[in-house]
TrEMBL record:
Homodimer. Coiled coil: none annotated. This is Glutamine--fructose-6-phosphate aminotransferase [isomerizing]. GO terms for molecular function: carbohydrate derivative binding; glutamine-fructose-6-phosphate transaminase (isomerizing) activity. Residues 40-179, 212-354 form the SIS domain. The keyword Repeat applies. It is found in: Cytoplasm. GO terms for cellular component: cytosol. Its EC number is 2.6.1.16. It catalyses: D-fructose 6-phosphate + L-glutamine = D-glucosamine 6-phosphate + L-glutamate.
């Protein structure tokens, strides 16, 4: 049941901290604070590259994974949505990694992409929530997201669980490839293990998120912005808003704004920005100043470190706990999903079962 929550989506949003913790627990040895992988039928050290594919939210998790795999593990990554990848003919070197991500393990396009990669000699590693699924049976290795059943059609907790697995996989590959020192691994693991408590603190921001929702609910179009690993978080926010509130939303890499979408900006198109402190903070901040100068209403998710710089610029600022750049996208996902939920409540839509959508898309 819904355990007293109004919708499964609300219940599942509140499960983020527990799900992140459970998922990490499977992959991190608490005594040594080191990532442990199951026995693999291939060697992580000798992978030439990875091809990552998935659909919808799972694809956005994969995009965050790409930033990690490239920057932390030094692994070349190609990524595409499964419906495109399955009909592309990318030249693949045998012995590469085919990395699939799916909550259900039954998504038709992702399954077809898996089969295509297997036929081209890729090692198949799937990040799955349903461990008894078609994709699980056809994979060389399954890494489980320990999210429990996800009932709401809009995916929430599965996403942070997927990120938790991808973060651990990145560490394991980085160690195998020698791009990650033991000391750095320990730092990253410590940052990951800190996430469940930090995720709990996100719920303290409910009031500010509801204020944002009141603005967004009035809009016809909403622009989501982010850079680096926050860009896929913006995409996830935009998708979730579309799914459950039926408001048009579009996510843009903040630096691309001036190459087109800036012409949309006026005071009727709210801008939801995800902007944690770190390397890309100043760059994104100047993009937001450009938007503000054109009358844009800024609704910003940042952290306690970034918040003081935004108070005069943004209409509403949500300051999350400050965490590392590595783990920030995991934490920042929670409030963008919460925002979509709050807007859906204001709109009175069928939150758990939005029109035209199915939980698992088993046809092409
Ligand atoms: O079961 P899967 O993870 O393979 O599903 C992929 C997408 O269909 C799914 O993430 C969809 O985009 C959700 N409705 C997003 O909230």
């Amino acid at each position: 049941g819904k355990d007293g929550y109004r919708h499964y989506m609300e219940k599942e949003l509140h499960e983020h901290p527990v799900v992140i913790g459970q998922t990490l627990q499977r992959l991190i040895d608490p005594a040594t604070r080191r990532v442990m992988m199951p026995d693999l039928p291939f060697d992580l050290a000798s992978l030439p590259r990875a091809v990552v594919t998935a659909c919808g939210s799972a694809f956005y998790a994969g995009l965050v994974g790409r930033y990690w795999l490239e920057a932390v593990a030094g692994l070349p990554v190609d990524i595409d949505v499964a419906s495109e990848l399955r009909y592309r003919d990318p030249p693949l070197t045998a012995g590469g990694l085919g990395l699939l991500i799916s909550q259900s393990g039954e998504t038709a396009d992702t399954l077809a992409a898996l089969r295509g990669m297997r036929a081209r000699g890729q090692h198949i590693l799937s990040v799955l929530n349903v461990e008894q699924s078609t994709m699980a049976r056809e994979s060389d290795v399954v890494l489980g997201t320990v999210a429990g059943p996800e009932i709401s059609v809009a995916s929430t907790k599965a996403f942070t669980a997927q990120l938790s697995v991808l973060a651990c996989l990145t560490i394991a590959i980085g160690r195998a490839r020698g791009t990650l020192s033991e000391a750095r691994e320990q730092e990253l693991v410590t940052e990951l293990l800190d996430l469940p408590s930090r995720a709990n603190e996100v719920f303290d921001q409910g009031q500010a998120i509801r204020e944002m929702a009141a603005v967004v609910a009035q809009a016809r179009d909403v622009l989501y912005l982010g850079r680096g690993s926050s860009f896929p978080v913006a995409m996830e926010g935009a998708l979730k808003l579309k799914e459950v509130s039926y408001i048009h939303a579009e996510a843009y890499a903040a630096g691309e704004m001036k190459h087109g979408p800036i012409s949309l900006i006026d005071n009727t198109v709210p801008i939801v920005a995800t902007l944690p402190s770190g390397r890309l903070f100043e760059k994104t901040l100047s993009n937001l100043q450009e938007a503000r100068a054109r009358g844009g209403r800024l609704l910003v998710f940042t952290d306690t470190k970034g918040a003081p710089r935004l108070r005069d610029l943004a209409e509403i600022v949500v300051a999350l706990p400050t965490v590392s750049e590595f783990t920030a996208p995991v934490l920042q996902t929670i409030p963008v999903q919460m925002l979509a939920y709050e807007v859906a409540l204001l709109k009175g839509t069928d939150v758990d079962q939005p029109r035209n959508l199915a939980k698992s898309v088993t046809v092409e």
